[in-house]
């Protein structure tokens, strides 16, 4: 059995076995480290995706809340403007009534305009008469002062 070498007695085989065991241990350690980092990365990615989905979910529901609020505001404004529409309609009717009533005043307005024109002409005549009276007064005073005494 000289050709058979026992594993425990061959130093090269033991060194190779130790090297392979060390490399195997090192690879296992690295794999565990990589596996741990990979798990951390996966957890981080899953957390980020969860946060993003939660934010998107909140945004969607926030948008829905904003849309509901906007719809309520639109309804409220519509109610307010409906009231303004009623007021405007009432004002329109009132203006039409005033126009109808003012039509009956047209005759009186024309009469007032005619009277105003006559007053203007009368004032011009009075002004001329005033000038003539002043002129006549000055002539009378002049004649009175020139009388022989």
From TrEMBL:
Domain of life: Eukaryota
Pfam families referenced in this protein's UniProt entry, alphabetically: BLOC1_2 (PF10046)
InterPro entries linked to this entry: BLOC1_su2 (IPR019269)
Family: Belongs to the BLOC1S2 family.
Protein name: Biogenesis of lysosome-related organelles complex 1 subunit 2 isoform X1
């Amino acid at each position: 059995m000289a050709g058979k070498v026992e594993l425990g007695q061959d130093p090269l085989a033991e060194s190779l076995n130790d090297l392979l065991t060390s490399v195997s241990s090192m690879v296992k350690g690295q794999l565990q480290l990589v596996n741990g980092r990979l798990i951390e990365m996966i957890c981080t990615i899953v957390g980020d995706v969860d946060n993003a989905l939660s934010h998107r979910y909140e945004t969607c529901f926030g948008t829905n809340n904003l849309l509901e609020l906007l719809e309520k505001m639109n309804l409220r404004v519509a109610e307010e403007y409906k009231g303004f529409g009623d007021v405007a309609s009432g004002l329109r009717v009132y203006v039409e009534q005033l126009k109808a009533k003012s039509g009956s005043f047209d005759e009186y307005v024309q009469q007032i305009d005619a009277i105003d024109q006559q007053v203007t002409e009368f004032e011009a005549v009075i002004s001329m008469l005033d000038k003539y009276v002043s002129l006549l007064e000055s002539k009378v005073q002049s004649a009175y002062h020139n009388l022989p005494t």
